[in-house]
Amino acid sequence: MKLRLLATAVTLTTLAATTAACGGGGSGSGSSSDAKTLTYWASNQSPSLAADKTNLAPVLKKFQDQTGIKVNLQVIGWPDLYSKILAATTSGQGPDVLNIGNTWAPSLQATGAFLPFGSSEFNAIGGKDKFVPAALATGGMKGKPPTSVPYLGLVYGLYYNKKMFADAGLQPPKTWEQLTAAAKKLTNPSKGVYGMAMEGGSYTEGVHFAFIFGQQHGADPFDASGKPQFTTPGMVAGVKQYVDLMADGMVNPSSAQYKNGPEAPGDFAKGKAAMLMSQNNADNTLQADGMKTSEYGVVPIPAPQGAKDVASFVAGINLSIFKNTKNKAGALKFVKFMTSKQTQATLDKPFTALPVIKGGTVNFTDNPAEAKAFVSVLHTRAVPLPLVPAEAAYETNVGNAVNALVAQAATGKSVSDADIKAALQEAQDKMASSGS
Amino acid sequence: MVPYLMVLPAILLELLVHIIPMLVGIWMSFVELTQFYISNWASAPWAGLGNYKIALDVHSPIGSDLLHSFAITIVYTVIVVGVSWTLGMSAALVLQNSFRGRGVLRTMFLVPYSLPIYAGVITWSFMFQRDNGLVNHILVNDLHLMGSPSFWLIGNKAFASMAVVAIWRSWPFAFLMLTAGMQSIPGDMYDAAAVDGAGIWRQARHITMAMLRPVNVVLVLMLFLWTFNDFNTPFVLFGPTAPKSADIISIHIYSNSFVNWNFGLGSAMSVLLLLFLLVVTGIWLLATRRGSRRA
Amino acid sequence: MHEGVSFRIFRWVVVTFLAVFTLVPFYVMVTSSLKPLGDVQGDFHWWPTHATVRPFVDIWSTVPLAHYFANSLIVCVLSTIFSVIVAIFAAYAVSRYRFRGRNVFTGTVLSTQMFPGILFLLPLFLIFVNIDKGLGFTALYQTRLGLIITYLTFSLPFSIWMLASYLEGIPRDLDESARVDGANAMGALFRVVLPAARPGVIAVAVYAFMTSWGEILFASQMTNDSTKTLSIGLQNYATAINVYWNQVMAASLVVSVPVVVGFLLLQRYLVTGLTSGAVK
């Protein structure tokens, strides 16, 4: 009888083993084990994940033809990317090469899971000097070998609807005051038209503008020793400048719920909003929504009169290599290939990115004025986000605080300086006691 | 030997997926497991009671947020369990006697329970949209109860939206359990009561309610545990971070662990939650057992 | 039975209210899935301006829905089968044998039902990852096998409890007469007890399948691009270039149909199974 039982147990185990065979679909996520393959995680830079795959396929094919290395591509959406990367650092089962949002670079560097680019690594990818210095500076903490190198360059700009501005006899704004005046003039809620589009529920947008506008008021979120200082008057003024767009009725209250990314550009493309503050990759979405490049203009996001002329931070996508990659030479070859002048020229257009290597040309738009505006922002009016390990925590805590304040303004409750200060204080306390 | 072999697979699986993870979770709550240590988690510094101190310090933002989250979870649970039970009981009562269309109604009422959670909740989230949702359309355009469209998924109304969705999902389960319970009540008990002149309301109170007691003990406990631990409803409605008014405990802990990547603190909060659930469940089982012995 | 006027009015009110409450989301789901995109982006309409089945065509290309569907089916069917098998053995042991540790076993198993899922999400993640490291290949973390094991264990406590109470209701004479006829414990279980317990087994299977089909929390962290299940995959409609509410509704409808139909066909078993324990 015991034998029969044992037989059953064996059958069960065999069944479990057969499932293991069906369950093996996850093997694609593992780091590649031989010198002829690489696993690469790309971030979502096109209008859809499928489009990313289509855009990258010929480039990866070319890399295989040149080096004989096959690249297994996975495209990961933004909402998942940071958690997936951190999960991969825990499991050690990350890809060999991956895209990161460059603002995360110092935080990810602090996990110790990524390959530092020392002089030999830089030599292998074609030298430090090939990169635009402002972009290269986002690679990691100051004074340490970076753990990422720039790949796609992005900055914020102010998109405006040419026809709506012309009809109202307006010029693109040169100061924040002109911007709000124009926004108010163009707002007509009864027609569902507003002066400004806003991705009000997106924490990344929230913290980006809190940072940019804070910088205009001379505020740094971290002091020299890396301690958060979110409640300085400049920080409060920066958040207020953003929230007031909603509080003063220049933004459709519904946009307080927008958080996926395409909604605000959608409003702008459909003529429901006259202006849009966005990174240059909004071009993708605008065109997919049927807006032609000739229908909009781009100028730097203006600062209030007398404030510092900061229009963006140095945004963008960087490439990192997992430290425990079993194919380091191949990974470096791949990074070299992806940051080569030729690949950059190919990918900048579908990904609507600015070149991050010296001497690169702007290919993503056929509108020279737009190209000029974005390049001038990157070169003269963009500052890096704080390069401290707590940066990612700063993004989530301050970003969520800004979202809550925007929601408060949208639901018709006034937002006072004291409210903003209290929300920022709370975000700062969370940073302090959560060990970041 | 035979019974041990038979329970062995269950024990192994329970160990792997429940018991050992729980012990690991308790260990995690005592270490400083932030994003800087997770890649090398064995080297994370020992925090002692540090995570618990942070979680329980109600004067700090983290502690006070946890307390707030805990308080609204209790309110949420009481409302959802109470209303779901009431609706389920009412429906089971009125469908107890057969009439034309009873079968169709029974089947229809069970559909929300059988729907995959995300499909049901995502439909509600569409209905709660401010500009293109059905709820605002009815309230503003059809019934003119409100002058301007409201936000149902941010701000203070988010709590009510979440509760409605949870009730919509939970009450059919109460209905299912209670209907099944009623089917096992012998019909002659009602006949005897009817002979004694008891009307239908008195029968409902004295026979149905009394006979359903054991079902209710289990049902209320299950509804309580599901609702208190509810993660799916807020996650599908709001994403990984819920508005403050709807920041119930599971999603609160999730965002503290995964949004801020502080697993030590998240684990400490989970352990506190587990202790609370153990105490409440224990008290409930003791109280109802004593009650049933008396009866 | 005398129902009386007040009871009839009460019944009418209850039934009407609940019917509306239950059906409105289905109405929205069905009508919106037939609307062109413009209809779901502007003000809400009770009817499509013109009905179209486009959303049902487009859902398969906007996101790899068929792939997620296959993942969900593999994971849920297999976890259900194993959950039922494991539960049958455990429940039979619990209901037919008085062995040392029996109460500890049932008590522990049932109490795991109340653990908040969030408590073991992260530890489980660490454990899976380390098992994989030990094995040297990806066996559990972000694989279908890992998800199958997790899900089958989720439904296990309740399944064992439900089946054990069901088996309690089956007279022991039945197995004993089988034993007299020369069958061993296994033979008695499979030839006599299980056929008698069919409704209970079906109930457990329905419960296990539904539990795993709707699971979100673990699927959100324990799957990757190639193993993603429907519960997470459905959210991808919102992150594409437009929020395709019509497609979201169409996809919701499509993924719901198999479970709803299955559930409605088998619900009478679930009713019996669920209450056999609670009522006694």
Characteristic terms for this protein:
heterotrimer; A: 436 residues; alpha/beta; D-Maltodextrin-Binding Protein, domain 2; 2 domains; five-stranded mixed β-sheet; four-stranded mixed β-sheet; 11 strands; globular; disordered N terminus; C: 280 residues; mainly alpha; MetI-like fold; 77% helix
Order of helices and strands of chain A: HEHEHEHHHEEHHEHHHEHEEEHHHEHH
Tally of contiguous helical segments of chain B: 13
Class by alpha and beta content of chain A: alpha/beta
Q: Poorly predicted ranges of chain B (pLDDT <50, ≥5 residues)?
A: none
CATH architecture of the domain at 75-246 in chain B: Orthogonal Bundle
Strands ordered across the widest β-sheet of chain A: 2-1-3-10-4
Largest sheet of chain B: none
Helix content of chain A: 40-55%
CATH superfamily of the largest domain in chain A: Periplasmic binding protein-like II
Quick structural gist:
The complex is a heterotrimer of chains A (436), B (295) and C (280). Chain B is an all-alpha fold.
What report would you give on this structure?
The complex is a heterotrimer of chains A (436), B (295) and C (280). By secondary structure, chain A is of the alpha/beta class. Chain A has helices at 2-22, 49-67, 78-91, 105-110, 119-124, 133-136, 162-167, 176-186, 203-216, 233-247, 263-269, 282-288, 328-338, 341-348, 368-381, 391-410, 417-433; strands at residues 37-43, 70-76, 97-101, 148-154, 156-161, 194-197, 273-279, 296-299, 312-313, 315-321, 382-383. Chain A has two domains: 34-154 and 314-383, Periplasmic binding protein-like II (D-Maltodextrin-Binding Protein, domain 2); 156-313 and 387-433, D-Maltodextrin-Binding Protein, domain 2, CATH 3.40.190. Helices cover 46% and strands 13% of the residues of chain A. In chain A, α11 packs across α12 (282-288). With 295 residues, chain B is mainly alpha-helical. Chain B has a domain at 75-246: MetI-like (MetI-like fold), CATH 1.10.3720. Chain B is 73% helix and 0% strand. In chain B, α3 packs across α7 (157-183), α3 (61-94) packs antiparallel against α10 (213-228) and α7 packs antiparallel against α10 (213-228). Chain C contains 14 helices and no strands. The model of chain C has no long low-confidence stretch (mean pLDDT 83). At the B-C interface, α1, α3, α4, α5 and α6 of B face α1, α4, α5, α6 and α7 of C.
